[in-house]
Amino acid sequence: MTFHEQIQEGIPSVLPQPKPYQTDINHAPKRKEILTAEEKKLALRNALRYFEPQHHAELVKEFSHELETYGRIYMYRLRPDYRMYARPISEYPGKSEQAKAIMLMIQNNLDYAVAQHPHELITYGGNGAVFSNWAQYRLTMKYLSEMTDEQTLVMYSGHPMGLFPSHKDAPRVVVTNGMMIPNYSKPDDWEKFNALGVTQYGQMTAGSYMYIGPQGIVHGTTITVLNGGRKISKNGEGLEGKIFVTSGLGGMSGAQPKAGNIAGCITVCAEVNPKAVHTRHSQGWVDEVVTDINELVQRVRSAQANKEVVSIAYQGNIVDVWEEFDKQNIHIDLGSDQTSLHNPWAGGYYPVGLSFDEANAMMADNPELFKEKVYASLRRQADAINKHTAKGTYFFDYGNAFLLEASRAHADVMAANGIDFKYPSYVQDIMGPMCFDYGFGPFRWVCASGKPEDLAKTDAIAATILEEMAKTAPEEIKQQMQDNIKWIRGAQENKLVVGSQARILYADAEGRINIARAFNEAIAKGEIGTVILGRDHHDVSGTDSPYRETSNIYDGSRFTADMAIHNVIGDSFRGATWVSIHNGGGVGWGEVINGGFGMVLDGSSDASRRLESMLFWDVNNGIARRSWARNDEAIFAIKRAMESQPLLKVTLPNKVDDSLL
């Protein structure tokens, strides 16, 4: 069958042969045993409903084996035979250019070079899924190949509900993931309902089809490390010869060594999974690999002495690094952690003292003991970090729930008041006041032609736009503008592309609209092909997350989720091509509500109208909320927005004299 025929086939009427389990692929760990005998029957009924009854007798044993062996029913036999990657948009079958763009983005999320566990349909974060099983993938791609611009596909936690009559300005796809009744958002609820096949953890950009490989976070990490360096710098010195210690080389965390190189420091990043280490090293995202802790110490001393800019992957446990560097009196300038502690019991964090394989076996076979090991490891890690910060290390939580989970382990991470953490979130200290409050966030685009030359042209367009804007930018945002101009000018030489021809930069609403408008005009002139706009959910407006995106909201509302819901509703009727809303991305199931969008630019006047309307709202609804929280930077930004758009009238807060209270 041709590629087109396989896409259009959906769930085949004649079952493909079972596929062997490939041991050379990075697989998700076995999930914990959580279903009762009756619930396992329900999980099987739920899986078999995708297939005609004549196939049930053959599939029931196979799916039962998957459930017992892996803790989930992935339907491995239905994995397509074609290579999984983002093809040029012209190669997809369909009646809607917008639907073809979505197919491209879905396949990019599952590209072996991009996805963390591609056979389990998991893009990053240990459990951030595009779909729960391969039947859902096949059915979704079939629907997209049939869709017209008068229909909307509704996605229910990975399951395609179907095509509904719609209109050209409605989203082509509406995505929800994990939207549980609040009392059912505990970690074991995810384990249970995901095993039943009725919900999934979409992470942020995994389940919204907008992941672009680790480049998506390289820029934010670069900004974070640069500004972390500025916080500790004396006399304006840079990061030359300074050490940044962190951990995690999986999906998003794989960006850290590349960002450290761009920022100009020595990066040491620990990772226990040999396949993840090999992947990032082979892709050029990390310079060197060291497996011996003594060798690591000597290599770091040498790099310090020579003020090298180098990234080193330590294939081993991060706790050993913190402890050994303390023992050897190696000064760490910047410290963080980006293991997936939103998912600590299923492969997100590996405790010290266990090998990678031992930990994988224990988390499935003896989850209670594994939990004890994780908590003991977190206590040791926190103790070692505390010793370094006492010597002057600047440590920040990188929004991966490290401090939250460490506090649950009774690690020494709490401030004297017993309420706050002793270390700041990077959003509290850096990204919130410097970027999000001013409206700067991770704007991204994908060149749907698949041509590197199109990406180069869009880079040049974006750089020109930003340089022109910088000439008249107010003093408050000049640094943000210059950091992004430097970033986009160096994007090609830093070889950031993994998977689709994609780019990211931080821009405010004005910048996003100006860049998107210029792209659309270039498409209309035939200078470049179709462009797909999007953003990370980790942004100004799309995410309510009290320990990360909204951690610098101090009026008591950081535990509310109105902003994320407002954002996705507003994007839906202002012209987004697809929208998504998720429970649980980034910092854990039940800890965050986050939303995203995708928008296809095709050079048309319709696209021009939509981008102006949607991008303005997508940023400014968050600035309005941040302004109401009395954040001075956001008050400045929303006043600027009201001056530029007379129809915008936002309620501003009045400040209260503290002496009255």
Automatic annotation (TrEMBL):
NAD(+) binds at G125, G126, Q203, E271, Y398, G586. Coiled coil: none annotated. It is an enzyme of class 4 (lyase). PROSITE patterns: UROCANASE (PS01233). It comes from the Bacteria. One of its GO terms (molecular function) is urocanate hydratase activity. It catalyses: 4-imidazolone-5-propanoate = trans-urocanate + H2O. Residues 213-430 form the Urocanase Rossmann-like domain. One of its GO terms (biological process) is L-histidine catabolic process to glutamate and formamide. Its cofactor is NAD(+). It is found in: Cytoplasm. Binds 1 NAD(+) per subunit. InterPro entries: Urocanase, Urocanase-like, Urocanase_C, Urocanase_central_sf, Urocanase_CS, Urocanase_N, Urocanase_Rossmann-like, Urocanase_sf. Transmembrane segments: none annotated. The keyword Lyase applies. Its EC number is 4.2.1.49. The keyword Metal-binding does not apply. Belongs to the urocanase family. Catalyzes the conversion of urocanate to 4-imidazolone-5-propionate. This is Urocanate hydratase.
